[in-house]
Each structure stands twice: as C-alpha cells, then as structure tokens.
Amino acid sequence: MKVTLPKPNRTFGSSDVLGLVGLVGLLVARYIPIAKLIPFWGCALRETTGWPCLGCGLTRVADRVAHLNLAGAWDANPLGTVAALFFALMVAVTVLHLVFAMPIPQVHLSPTEWHRVRIATAAIVLINYAWVVVKTKFPYLLT
Q1: Residues facing 108 on adjacent strands
Q2: Labelling 40: which of 58, 83, 97, 100 has CA 20 to 30 A away?
Q3: d(CA 103, CA 9)
C-alpha cells in the first residue's frame, strides 16, 4: 500500500462526491420521513417471503444515525451503520477539503491488496447478512 499526500487544494473529487451524497442522505433521513410518505416503501422480498434482503434495515439505519441513535442503528444493520458513519465522516472531510483546502490522502493498492480487499468485503457483507437473517428469523438465538 502506498499513501500519498497531495498539495493543499480545493479540487472537487470523488471523496467530495461521497461527502455531498452523505450530507444529502443524512439530511433527508433527518427531516423527511420517507418510509411514511411513500406508500410502497419497504422490502418486497421480506414482505413476500418473510426473509430479509441484504439491504434490510438501511432506512432505519439512516434515520437513526441522523438522529444520533447509534445503538438503534447498529441493531437495525451493523454494516449499514458503519457505512452511514463513513458518509458522515466524508461530510466533515469534504467541508475541510473544500473550505480549508485540506489535502486528502490518496491510497494506492497493489493488485494483490485489491484482491484481499474484495475478499474481505465479500466476507463482511455475508457475515452482516447472516446477522440480519438471524436477528429477523431466529431472534431467540441472540438471547
């Protein structure tokens, strides 16, 4: 892994896009009750089969993180909570970058390291999904 630190700049980049997406998403989650306003909002897979999908709980996560209820967000979907907190962090990084010209470190991974990241990501997603399934279908196993 190679990390480089560019000169201070205000160049709009991909990290700034993540920050803006995070800002909009968290503001919507905080102030607009999407699940109550849109009649068809919900998990179609869970409604028809009773089994959760990979994204089950993400609306609750966004709402709870936006209201600073981190324990409730973690209970809804742990990986979603980590992602929402990452977006919140990117909001702060974007503000620092665009307002104060803070340089954003650039990380360069080798092909082997990228392969390991992909394998670890797949494993984390599967573990998170297993937890969501157990929590939804077999909650007595968690007590």
Answers
A1: 2
A2: 83
A3: 6
Task: Tell me how far apart the alpha carbons of residues 28 and 121 are, in angstroms, rounded to a whole number.
Answer: 27
> Which CB contacts under 8 angstroms, 24+ apart, belong to 35-44?
35/59, 35/63
Task: Kindly state the tokens that stand for 101.
Answer: 């010209």
Per-residue pLDDT tens over the stretch 46-78:
889 999 999 999 999 999 999 999 999 999 999
In contact, 77 and 56? CB cutoff 8 Å: yes
Helix, strand, or coil here: 36?
helix
Q: Domain range for residue 65?
A: 2-142
Beta strand spans in the chain (E): 2-4, 106-108
Rounded to the nearest angstrom, the gap between the alpha carbon of residue 102 and the centroid of all alpha carbons in its chain is 23
Could you give the CA distance from residue 70 to residue 65 in angstroms, rounded to a whole number? 6
Q: Which two tokens stand for residue 121?
A: 């990501």
Q: How many structural domains does the chain have? A: 1
